[in-house]
Amino acid sequence: MLNPWLALETGADAAERTGQVRRAHEQFVTRGAIGSHVRDVVAESWQRCAGASVEPESVAGIDLADADLDAYRSSHPLARVMPLFRELLGTIADDGAHLLSVCDENGRMLWVEGHSQVQRHAERMNFVPGARWSERYIGTNAPGTALAVDHAVQIFTAEHYCRPVQAWTCAAAPVHDPRTHRLIGAVDITGGDHLAAPQSLALVQATARAAEAYLAELHAADGTSAGTPVLNALGCDEALLDTGGGAPLRLGRRHSEIAVLLAAHPEGLTGERLALELYGERSVTPVTLRAELSRLRGLLGPLLESRPYRLRTVPHTDHDAVGEALAAGDLPGALAAYRGPLLPLSEAPGVVRMRRLLEDRLRRALLASREPALLEEWVRTPWGEDDLEVWEVLLSRRPGGTAGATALAGRVRELRRAYGLETPAEH
C-alpha cells in the first residue's frame, strides 16, 4: 500500500479485509502476536493499548456532562471553528450514514453531530460529547490514534482495539494551534465501511488544514498573531520558538535553557547570574557563556539583547500557560496545557527549579481537587504513571469491590513495593 494511513488498497474487498483483520485482532488479544494483515500504524497502536491495559470489551467513559461540558467546550479554541466544520462536513453528517465529531487534545469528545438515528446507534458505545476517546482509554480509533501519532489516519472495522467499536469505520485528522503549533484536538467522520475510501481521509485532512488557516485569521484579527513570540519547552528537550516571522525555530539544548531562563526573567540577567542559573557551582569561564550567547544571537538577531542579557520581546511560554490556568483555578486547562516536564533532560539549576516548582503546583492542585477524571489523566501520562500519591488518592475515590478498584489497588501495591514501602508478604 502506497499510503500507510489509508485502511484499504484500491480495489480491495472490504468484507474479506474485515475477516482478515478480525482474526488478526483475536490473535493479538489472546496471544500478543501481530499478523501480516495488520498495518504498522494499527499494530503500533494495539501495542500501546495493551501496554496501557485497555480491555478489548471497554466502552468509553464519560468525563463531562451537562453544564460542565457546555462550559468546557464553549471555552475551547475549536468552538470558534465549529461553524467551519459544519459547513465543510455538515452535509456528510446529515446524510443518515455518518457522524461528524470533534474532540480536544486529550481525546475528549466535544461535539458529535449527525442524523439522529445514527447518533442513537453511536450512543451504545458512548460515542457522545463528554466521553474520552483517547487510545489510553478506549483503544485504537481514528480520533484517538490521530492524536497519538499526530497524523491523519483511517481506522477500519476490526482495526479498532475495542470490540464494541468494530462495526464502525472512521477517518480523523489532528488540528493544531497555528501560533504555538500544539495539538488542540482532532476532527473526525465516522460511519460504515465506505469511509475506508481515500476521499474520506483527504477530506478530513483538508478540513483540518482549513480550520488551522481560519484560526490563524482569527488570531490576526485578535492581534495575537504578531508581536509576541511563543516559546514551547514543556515535554521536549529542544524548545520551539515562534517569532511569527516564518517557520518556528528549534533551539539546541543549551540555547533552549538560555531562552527559558531569559523568558522567566524579563528584567534580564547579568552574565554572572545567568552562568549560575545555567552551570551552578561548576567552574565555567565567562568566555564559554559569551560564546553560547553569541551563537544564540546569530539565531535570534535583535531579539537577544545584552547588559543585562534579556529578550527584547518576552515570549509567552507554555510554562506560563500552565501557571496562568492554575492561577485562574482552571485545573482541566492547566492539565491540558502541561505537555510534560520543562526541558526534561536539562540539569541547569535554574531550569530544574522551574521544572520542579511547576510540577509541584500542578500536583498539589490535582491532589486537592480529588477529581477522579483529572487524577486518572495524570497517572496515564509518562510523567505521572509512577506517582504513588496520586494513585493512592485515585484509589480512595473508587468504590471498593469494583474491577476498577481492584486494578487500582494492585497498581498501588506494585508502586509501594517498588519504593520499598511494602514487602510482597505484607499484602
From TrEMBL:
Domain OmpR/PhoB-type: 246-311
Keywords noted in UniProt: DNA-binding
Domain of life: Bacteria
Record InterPro entries: GAF-like_dom_sf, OmpR/PhoB-type_DNA-bd
Protein name (database record): Transcriptional regulator
Source species of the chain: Streptomyces marispadix
